[in-house]
């Protein structure tokens, strides 16, 4: 293959997708770096009821993880992702405060960006499948050197469509499960503290574990076929 970054052993679509997904996950360490700041935020908020302390603590742990990465000269992608997520959460908290929201409302606002993100991602992934250009296909294109050549092979399109649907399932489940809890907490139909606790637990439990379940299903599909990659 002509692309210098693509290992010569990646001669099938399945191998390409497995390699790309493995790179995107970041391994166990990447999963921990994504989950710990949320866990810290939830615990500190529930024990102190001080939103500022919770936000500062989550940022502090994310920065600490980032510094460790820098010292070890390893990828900082997952630490930066965590910091970006906290930053967006802080923006929503600030908006809620400016609109006169209570401390409970502000704590719930921290989790709203994640729900919106998963809803948007579900829509995008679903649309790419429905229009016949599944997102996973572009992973194949990034390796073969031609971003759209894969679309000419119906077998590849079918494979990538199934994989993209599987990638969308965790996002959809998060929205379906977390949205009613957020709404209930915000409307006082559920105790706000309980809603925050549930959202914190679910954000972690439905994060990488759910993603890994989907990836396990994807791996099973990928292990059953050998679809040749055609380099551009």
Q: What is the H/E string?
A: HHHHHHHHHH
What structural class is derived from the secondary structure elements?
mainly alpha
- Portion of residues in beta strands equals under 5%
* CA-based gyration radius: 20 Å
Count of individual domains: 1
Helicity level, as a percent range?
Answer: over 70%
How far the N terminus sits from the C terminus, by CA atoms, comes to: 8 Å
Number of strand segments: 0
- What low-confidence regions span 5 or more consecutive residues with pLDDT below 50? 1-10
Sheet with the most strands, sense and barrel status: none
Which term fits the overall shape?
globular
Task: Give the integer mean of the pLDDT values.
Answer: 82
Overview of the molecule:
By secondary structure, the protein is an all-alpha fold. The protein has one domain (13-224). 77% of the residues lie in helices and 0% in strands. It has helices at 13-25, 27-48, 51-72, 77-98, 103-109, 112-130, 136-144, 154-186, 192-205, 208-224. Helix 1 runs antiparallel to helix 10, helix 2 runs antiparallel to helix 3 (51-72) and helix 6 packs antiparallel against helix 8 (154-186). Residues 1-10 have low confidence and may be disordered.
Key structural traits:
232 residues; single chain; mainly alpha; disordered N terminus
């Amino acid at each position: 293959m002509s692309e210098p970054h693509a290992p010569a052993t990646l001669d099938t679509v399945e191998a390409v997708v497995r390699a790309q997904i493995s790179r995107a996950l970041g391994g166990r360490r990447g999963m921990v770096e994504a989950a710990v700041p949320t866990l810290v935020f939830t615990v500190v908020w529930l024990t102190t009821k001080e939103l500022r302390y919770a936000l500062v603590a989550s940022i502090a742990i994310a920065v600490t993880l980032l510094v460790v990465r820098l010292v070890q000269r390893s990828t900082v992608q997952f630490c930066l992702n965590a910091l970006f997520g906290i930053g967006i959460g802080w923006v929503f908290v600030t908006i809620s405060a400016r609109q006169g929201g209570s401390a409970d409302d502000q704590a719930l606002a921290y989790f709203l960006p994640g729900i919106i993100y998963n809803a948007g991602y579900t829509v995008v992934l679903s649309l790419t499948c429905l229009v016949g250009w599944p997102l996973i296909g572009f992973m194949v294109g990034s390796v073969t050197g031609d971003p759209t050549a894969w679309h000419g092979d119906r077998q590849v399109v079918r494979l990538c469509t199934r994989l993209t649907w599987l990638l969308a399932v965790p996002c959809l489940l998060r929205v379906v499960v977390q949205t009613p809890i957020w709404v209930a907490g915000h409307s006082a139909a559920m105790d706000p503290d309980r809603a925050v606790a549930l959202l914190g637990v679910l954000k972690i439990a439905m994060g990488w574990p759910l993603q890994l379940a989907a990836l396990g299903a994807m791996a099973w599909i990928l292990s059953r076929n050998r679809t040749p990659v055609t380099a551009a």
